[in-house]
Amino acid sequence: MASYYLAITYDVCEHQNLYQDMNEYPIKSTDNLMEKVKEFAKQDIAPVVKVYESNSSKFKHIELFREYKFKEYECNCENGGGT
Ligand SMILES: [Zn+2]
Question: Which parts of the chain have pLDDT scores under 50?
Answer without folding.
Answer: none
